[in-house]
Amino acid sequence: MSDSGRRGRSRISLFAVKRLAPRLRAHRPALAGAGVCLLLSTAIGLAFPLIVRYLMDAAFGNGDAALLGTIALGLLGLFVLQGVFNFGETYWLGATGERVVTQLRDELFSKLVALSPGFHAGRTSGELTSRLASDCSTLQQIMGHQIAELVRQGLFLVGAAILLTLLHWQLMLTTLTVAPVVVLAGFALGRLLRRRSTEVQDRLAAAHAVADEAFGQIEVVQGFVREEWERERYRAGIGTALDAALSRAVVRALLFGILTVVAFGGIVVVLWQGGRLVLAAQITAGQLVSFLLYAFSVAAAIMALASLWGSYQEAQGAARRVFDLLDRESEIVDPEAPESIAGDGPPEIAFEGVSFRYGEGEPWALEGIGATIAPGEVVALVGPSGAGKTTFASLIPRFWDVTEGRVSVRGIDVRASGVAELRSRIGIVPQDHPLFAGTIGENIAYGRPDADRPAIEAAAEAAHAREFIERLPDGYDTRVGERGVRLSGGQRQRIAIARVLLKGPEILILDEATSGLDAESEALVEEALQHASTGRTTVIIAHRLRTVRRADRLFVLDRGRLVDSGPHDALIARCELYARLYEGQQLA
User: Fold this and answer.
1) 285-327 and 227-279 are packed helices; what angle lies between their axes, rounded to 10 degrees?
2) 386 vs 588, more confident
3) Is residue 51 in some structural domain?
4) Enclosing H/E stretch for 407
5) Is the confidence at residue 571, as pLDDT, over 70?
6) Could you give the residue ranges of the DSSP H alpha helices within 168-178?
7) Is it the case that residue 556 has pLDDT exceeding 90?
């Protein structure tokens, strides 16, 4: 391993604590209260063996029954106080952990929804939701329990060691002989435990991704009778996670087995040596019991610290995954001083020497594109599959940034404008017409949450959706199910169009909005789209060429290049590629 790799591995030992500590600063009063309770509770725990010493001597030494009762009552009172302190500590730390993790989840979700489509294209939604759920829960354990236990056991270890030394330093040396073995075992196996735990989380995330994909495409799964195949895929995923979890269990069991033998074996030696001292009348029975209780405290503290170290190592992978996502910078960012693209009426869109590819070393998806779309013009992008039509359209709202050249709206480079302002002026009707699992009214108002019911109804009517909506039992309050599964394709598409109409964009992008619809739905959607395009600069991604006759111009793309442009009739006469595509679809 390289020096940099070793340095990186050593730094990660405190990675989770370093990254979580700044988030705890706002909760200092609660943490201070928990700290005070922790100190007082630990002090009572350390005082217990000393009090037991006097209790034992009162019982077996001088037989003082009154003193015995007084000491017993004092112990009960101390335990009641300890219970109160433990309650305060547990509540304050638990509440702080819940608040911090809630904030962490909020920040993580906000980061994920802001990252560009390029980031999401390489990851499954199941993997990302696993980071929000299981990884954040793992970090909650650090803040709500592990840090407090680390401090508590550290105090027990130091306090008990000091008191043991004061009681009998020779026995103290015997007790501490087991410490190096425990520490070495904890560190060695703890590192292995961290690697195993990271592997478990990664494999579980992959299994969750399989389940998420199957649930999202349940109609396809059931339509092709692939339920058993999906079951096997999920079983295989959780099976590999189980293998990793069993391997982690072996490491954890080995760690605690070694600690138990070493720690309590040391106590047996101390008990034997202390018994000889009692027989020699060098210490009293009460002193021996007190010493043994402290020795147990030391052993238990060492084991607890080793256990916490193992748990912390398990949390390291979760912390790394969560904060790697939080630290990730979006490829699409606002400039320091955004320029406004506001203006009257629909804008002009210009592509000036635009070339684009999705990654370094990948082929060009677009190359040398130069084209201008006039204000209010309807342009259709046509060409064979893979020609670059969708890529062309996705550069306008900056889902991706150009590799070379520039895309401008009203003469301003879209990279110089604010992302939010740019996209607020663009309406997109995608091919797969997805909806959210809310009501019809909420879906239409998604782009304008403050819209009132009359505005929502007007948009639905313009999209030819009002008639079918009002026939539903709950009308606009009808819940559509996940991705709108309770509605037909034509109904979902008309709601998607109503959503865009209510937004009122200046630029409209339509990705074959009538694809897959029956004749009646297609006619209604086409009429709605005709209305939606009026007074807007419109770009249509056309896969079925009979739908583009209403376009003012057609851009013919092939292998990422703009090979021709013009109205339908002119292209039929002069563009061999377009004529071949059109005739091929007419004969199909």
Assistant:
1) 150
2) 386
3) yes
4) strand 404-409
5) yes
6) 169-176
7) yes
Contacts of 586 (CB under 8 A, 6+ apart): 546
DSSP-assigned beta bridge partners for residue 140: none
Nearest residue to 238 via CA among 379, 323, 126, 114: 126
Averaged pLDDT of the chain: 81
Are residues 448 and 573 both part of a single domain? yes
Residues 260, 196 share a domain: yes
Q: Which range of residues forms the domain containing residue 498?
A: 349-587
Q: Can you state the percent helix, strand and coil of the chain, rounding each to 5?
A: 70, 10, 20
**378 and 305 share one domain:** no
Residues whose CB falls within 8 Å of the CB of residue 80, separated by 6 or more in sequence, listed in order? none
User: E-strand spans in 110-174?
Assistant: none
Q: Give 495-554 as a 3 state SS string.
A: HHHHHHHHHCCCEEEEECCCCCCCHHHHHHHHHHHHHHHCCCEEEEECCCHHHCCCCCEE
Q: Which residues have C-beta within 8 Å of that of residue 117, sequence separation ≥ 6?
A: 394, 399, 400
In a domain, 67, yes or no: yes
Q: Could you tell me if 226 and 362 lie in one domain?
A: no
Q: Alpha-carbon distance 126 to 123, whole Å? A: 8
- Give the total number of structural domains in the chain: 2
Residue at token pair 């940034």: 401
Strand 404-409 relative to strand 412-413: parallel, antiparallel, unpaired? antiparallel
Neighbours of 151 (CB within 10 A): 16
Shared-domain flag, residues 494 and 559:
yes
pLDDT at 5 over 60: no
Strand arrangement of the beta sheet that strand 412-413 belongs to = 366-373, 349-356, 404-409, 412-413
Cα-only R_g, the chain: 35
Whether 338 is in a domain gets the answer: no
The DSSP letter of residue 262 is H
Q: Which of 564, 565, 570, 567 is nearest to 552 (CA)?
A: 567
Tokens of 83: 């219970």
Q: Are residues 257 and 390 in the same domain?
A: no
Q: Which two tokens stand for residue 525?
A: 């959607």
The beta strands (E) that lie in 434-492 are given as: none
104-155 per-position pLDDT tens digit: 888 888 888 888 877 877 777 777 887 887 788 878 777 767 777 878 888 8
Burial level of 310, CB count in 10 A (0-12/13-18/19+)?
A: buried
Q: Are residues 316 and 401 in the same domain?
A: no
* Cβ pair 304, 183 in contact under 8 A: no
Question: 355: part of which helix (H) or strand (E)?
Answer: strand 349-356
Contact present, 407 and 413 (Cβ < 8 Å): yes
Please report how many Cα atoms fall inside a 13 Å half-sphere around the Cα of residue 157, on the Cβ side. Answer: 17
> Which residue type occupies 360?
E
What are the tens digits of pLDDT across the range 411-462? 999 999 998 899 989 988 887 767 887 888 988 988 888 889 999 999 888 8
Q: Same structural domain for residues 279 and 190? A: yes
Pick the last residue of a domain from 293, 327, 361.
327
CA distances from 447 to 137, 414, 452, 503 (A): 33, 21, 13, 5
In whole angstroms, what separates CA 423 from the centre of its chain?
25
Is 339 within a domain? no
